[in-house]
Specification:
Blueprint (H helix, E strand, L loop, with lengths): L1 E5 L12 H13 L4 E4 L2 E2 L5 H21 L5 E4 L2 E3 L20 E5 L7 H13 L3 E5 L5 H5 L2 H8 L3 E5 H4 L5 H12 L3 E5 L12 H5 L8 H16 L13
Parallel strand pairs: 1-2, 2-4, 3-5, 5-6, 6-7, 7-8, 8-9
């Protein structure tokens, strides 16, 4: 499996606190049949893009060396979880923030209620720069619950969607689980990822969480969401058009 959203790099955001913890997260990944992880530390300072990329790249190289020394069969690639806000309009080149050097960029919004119209405009700016936004964990956004039609708008402009394994497993509550399931069954979601931040609490033990998925999420869907679709991102491939069930 490929984990496109994981905070495994140490001491760069609120994820792994040390290289020791990063190694433990990688061991968990290997035990859970995850062989590729894209490290996606939080990014919000559009005046500090170059410095962020340098630090992230250095930590990724070092972590891969450590994992290789421990014979851990997990490869770590570079990405970011980009917080969309008005600063994006004046930002410079953002190529280094994409997932594995592709056109795909993992993007997030505030977990607090936000202006839906602005959310659409921010995503339009990303699209206008030639990137394909992947909206991280839409099931966590209060504003998406209140205005699910925004999913239609984002989809129509070319955005893709990534649901967290924990949310689909019901760890965030029934409402979150139901919305995550609804998004998947309507066809909006291409990716399931761990969004892991540590070895405890928000971890990347995906196999045990799959047991708690709604029964409608069958093995075929899980394979697509964790293997086939993420592989397209890693290879920078395009997705075929498909129909969805609009809100």
């Amino acid at each position: 499996m490929i984990d496109l959203h994981c905070h495994m790099l140490p001491e760069i955001d609120d994820g792994a606190r040390s290289y020791d913890e990063a190694v433990e997260m990688a061991k968990n990944a290997e035990k859970n049949r995850i062989n590729t992880v894209i490290a996606t530390p939080h990014f919000a300072d559009f005046d500090d893009v170059d410095e962020f990329i340098i630090e992230r790249n250095e930590k990724t190289v070092l972590l891969n060396k450590i994992l290789n020394n421990f014979n851990i069969g997990v490869s770590v690639g570079c990405g970011a979880e980009v917080y969309l806000k008005s600063d994006v309009f004046t930002a410079g080149n953002l190529d280094g923030l994409t997932l594995n050097g592709s056109r795909y960029m993992l993007c997030e919004y505030s977990l607090q209620p936000f202006d839906i119209e602005k959310a659409v405009i921010y995503a339009e700016e990303i699209c206008g720069r030639g990137y394909i936004p992947i909206i991280a964990h839409p099931e966590r956004y209060i504003s998406f619950y209140r205005h699910p039609e925004v999913v239609n708008e984002l989809w129509d402009m070319g955005c893709r969607f990534q649901v967290n394994v924990a949310g689909l497993a019901g760890i965030g509550g029934e409402q979150m689980q139901d919305f995550a399931k609804n998004l998947i069954l309507r066809g909006f979601v291409d990716f399931l990822a761990t969004d892991a931040h540590s070895v405890r609490g928000r971890d990347n033990r995906i196999l045990s969480k799959i047991d708690d998925f709604p029964r409608e999420i069958d093995d075929y869907r899980i394979k697509y969401l964790t293997e086939e679709a993420p592989q397209k991102v890693v290879r920078n491939e395009e997705f075929a058009n498909r129909d969805v069930g609009y809100f």
